[in-house]
UniProtKB/TrEMBL annotation:
The lineage of its organism: Bacteria, Bacillati, Actinomycetota, Actinomycetes, Mycobacteriales. It comes from Rhodococcus navarretei. Residues 4-120 form the Response regulatory domain. The keyword Phosphoprotein applies. Keywords: DNA-binding, Phosphoprotein, Transcription, Transcription regulation. This is Response regulator transcription factor.
Amino acid sequence: MPITVVVVDDQELMRMGLNMVLEAQDDIEVVGEASDGAAAVEAVTRLAPTVVLMDIRMPGIDGVAATRTITESGSEARVLVMTTFDLDDNVLGALRAGASGFLLKDTPPEDLISAIRSVAAGDAVVSPKVTKRLLSRFVAQSESIADASVLDALTGREREVLVHLATGLSNAEIAAVLHLSEATIKTHIGRILTKLGVRDRVQAVVLAYETGLVRPGS
């Protein structure tokens, strides 16, 4: 089965370029496109794509609001937001809204394809270090801090893994620090996601900061 994609951008030329890159892949099929957030939500509801490439800055309903609507609807579509600047404050809003990561609009085609395949496989494509940098800049200013009691469901080891994950370590690096196998770390992360009720690693990292488990600069 191909990876189905809906492309969302208010610039027609950008949509055309993305479509050309994606349709050149045997395992990816562009099934729809939209020029604003409202049309994006409608397209996702109607087409049930695997991945949504979502522009953040659009007239009317923007990419952040559209992402929130899609994820809260229970859709299984994974959202990759696209932005011009990696420290765009709207990126954090999109991650909080449930996006599985973000890409810069000047991302090389091969990296775009790799990102879509990763997200389709259930992984997040934002590097933990980039996520940490975003959160360090914006979470300290946030007024909406999550209830830390949500972390009570985690074991001591799972909390430890989450802290390392949120501070920017990869699975291999966490395994080395804790003297465990990568497979064990992957299992721990899977349990963390389930217990916290989050979609992927990015959402877990956001929650770790918003509950105060990890603080900016730590």
